[in-house]
């Protein structure tokens, strides 16, 4: 009998047959019901679910921006942002429940295999030193480890106020919060960035801007949640 990584209640095994033939569950049925997968028709750019032809309103606006239109990024996310996911994300990021990341492994791998077949390099969105000290780990790096043990750090995060405290316009208009690490050579590489949540797309675009300017051929992103 195992414990749910979210609520820590015991997960009953139906029979010895399920123990042998089926991979052990690490999240209970009650908690799994709170997680809403992104399925069906999505925006071809940001991966948001919705009733639009190809790109959502946000991505059409990004495409019309005089500067950001040249930094187009394909994002795919696994879960919708709802109250259940908000609780789990807080537990994971802000309460230091490091082991919780294992609950997302199967879905992260499935979406990666389905949507990103030609990737040269996997990296992750960094935390500032201050935020890393507060949490003890970088949640984006932890999620990247679900896909590969060879995720490469490419960027450094400047010290600044939390993105979660900013509104949409403040996020979009902020200066680039990242610095490219020295001696990085990205010529013609397709880079996949891992992060926990995609909200406006500003964070991913700022990172992509630096990587594309350094010579990357393409930058895509895989995020756990689409807000």
Automatic annotation (TrEMBL):
InterPro entries: ComF/GntX_DNA_util-trans, PRTase-like, PRTase_dom
Domain of life: Bacteria
Gene3D superfamilies given in the database record: 3.40.50.2020
Pfam family, one: Pribosyltran
Chain ranges of the Phosphoribosyltransferase domain: 137-226
Similarity comment text for this entry: Belongs to the ComF/GntX family.
Protein name, UniProt field: ComF family protein
